[in-house]
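ping. complex inputs:
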Amino acid sequence: MSVASTGAVLRKIGLGGITGNRTALLISLGLMALLLFVPLALPGYQTLFRTTLVFVALAYAWNMIGGYTGYVSFGNMVFFGLGTYCAALLSARGIDNLVADIALAVVVNAAFAAIIGFPVLRLKGHYFGIATLGTALAVTDIVGNLDVFGGTGGLAVKQVDEAHFAIYYYAAWLVAAGAIAITFFVARSKVGYAFVAIRENEDAAAVLGISATKYKILAWAISAAIAGAAGAVYARGNGFIDPSIAFAEDFNVYPIVMTLLGGTGTVAGPFVGALILSAVNETLGHTFLKLHSLFFGAVIVLVVLLLPRGLVWLIGLRGGVRTWVKSLQGYKA
Amino acid sequence: MHLLAQDLVNGILAGGILAVVALGFSLVWGIMNIINLAHGAFVMLGAYVTWQLFTSFHLDPFLSLPISFVVLFVLGYLIQRFIINWVARAPVLTTFLLTFGLSLLVVNIALLIWTGDTRGVTTAYSGSNFTIGGITVPWAKLYTLIAALVITGVMYVWLHRSKTGRAIRATSMDIGAAQLAGVRVAQIYSIVFGLGAGLAGVAGTLVSLSYSLNPAMGQPFLIKGFVVCVLGGLGSVEGALVGGLTYGIVESFASQLDFSIGSQHISGAGLQDAVALVVLLVVLIFRPTGIMGRATA
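pong. complex structure:
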């Protein structure tokens, strides 16, 4: 299938081409621009929105491998965690520079993803998923057992003084914006079409001359680099890192749920999902502390059953409720 | 030499539980082509059912085996019938994500009911053991291994001899042909998923005798169950048993690793998950059909 006709097929089923629905994308970009004013307009909510932006970036990271390439990763928190440790280790050596943090996190993660991806990405579908989960647990084990990483005791990360805290917010915004831009431009390039071809039919893609392993490693390396950058920024904003923070389950689960809700394999989806779920989580978190993971589980179940293509698809849906109901049939045993 | 023998025995004793964990997981995967990520959560539920019965009614864990099985079977049957069946034939990744969501739900409901406190089932025979030829064997673990062998044997005979068992095997071989022969596939799927959950429940009961309980306890068993499946070969009862015992032994030896690189001390006991990953990757790269050799899906 040529590049042009792949796009045509995607448009026909209401996906609006390889970047997803255009209206949703424009709305997302508008909201993203508004978020730039949070430190000035709503200084009290700065920490909340900074965390949201970190999750936006993580959702885009997951979308690259899980959404575009169709390889569901349950181990992306490893890259986030390694990113946080890059910042912490630099800080421990007296280097306190956000640019250095992010640069190191990007390089280390891309390299790590490529090395570990060589065996892991040869596995298909669910084998890959479990192997990534295994990788995540294994790396958590190893980091917790090595003295260099401060063991389970953790490491302090030096911060700027309180008055200049907004710098961490802007850094998180830049990483999130970068993640959106990378996704947009990668998706529209030849590489993006290769990812989608692998997702839709890996064997057919291979027949067309797409080197599946090469592109899968590339997708995972991009994913890892974005997650690592998000981790580095998070570590500086947080001021302290230990294995239970760096490799917390939340950094694994939330990005997946956010991307699913918004729409996998679209440019707007992860942003839409991250914004909605962060807002809901913030509300639930204060009132029902124990219920939010329960709620996230329920969202996954409902979205998979009722909204398999996510909210962005719903915005661009042609044919109303009938098309929607029809899209849900056909997989029953 | 004596230490090696002790490790070997420990590994076999632990492997019995892993075989039962993997058995249910392997059935669901092999027959329905669903990777049930809620399997670990079902193991956890089985353990808590046992704990609850033990605490409230002083019921011996081995007597609660059938109860765990029935409770989890019903839960699994209903989940398949009313939730998973909607997407039973969707691409694998759909059910992958769906069962991931279900596992979050189950774990967090357990957290609400039993809280996150660590609990344990301590029976009269929990601490006692016997020594044979210098090797120490805890009674509870020996009983557990015997129970695991019996359960595996019963499953093997039932799948090969009973009418339902044969219908299940027919479905895994060729859905179309099975349907033509009068097998109701949706019904079989519900039974298989129920069976998978029931076996996870039984495994949970066995687990509760040797491990402490908390709602997050299931995940390591999910990973190990997966590795054991891959190791033994997919969808076969004997594969799960061989895979379980092999993995138990590997893990037992690995936990004895103890060395230093420079000033860094490394102990195998803290690296169980890393061991699981290495075994998984090595098997998938060098022998992707598992030890027992059935081609995987």
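Chain B is about 70% helix and 5% strand.
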